[in-house]
Each structure stands twice: as C-alpha cells, then as structure tokens.
Amino acid sequence: MNEVIDFYTQPVPHSQEHRSRLLQEIAFLEGRLTRLDATGDGDNAYERALGRTYHALLGLRRRELATLNS
What we know:
70 residues; mainly alpha; 3 helices; 80% helix
C-alpha cells in the first residue's frame, strides 16, 4: 500500500509524456468512482474510504494537470 501512496504523491515532471500519464490516471480514477457509484457507493466503510481516497487522488491529479496547463 505504501508503494501506491508514494507513486501518487510524487510530483510529476513537466513533459508531454507526463501530461498523458496524468490524463490516464484521471480517467482511471473517474472510472473507479463511477463503478463505486453504480454498485452502491457507501454501502460499507471500505467503499466509503475507497471513494474518499479516489476523490483525494483525483483532486491531486487535476491540480497537477492544471499546473502543467498554465
């Protein structure tokens, strides 16, 4: 689990390749959140915690993408 946290909290260098990676990660996280909603997001503590984590990561990646775009 720590490897996942480390991966998602490292700053992304500025390049087209990394912009593409950010877009892929954003799409992945949005897809996971959509699937959680479709299966009854919040039905249990695990799903609620997972949803909060995905929302936090999504916000982080969107801010990083905005920084690249500015």
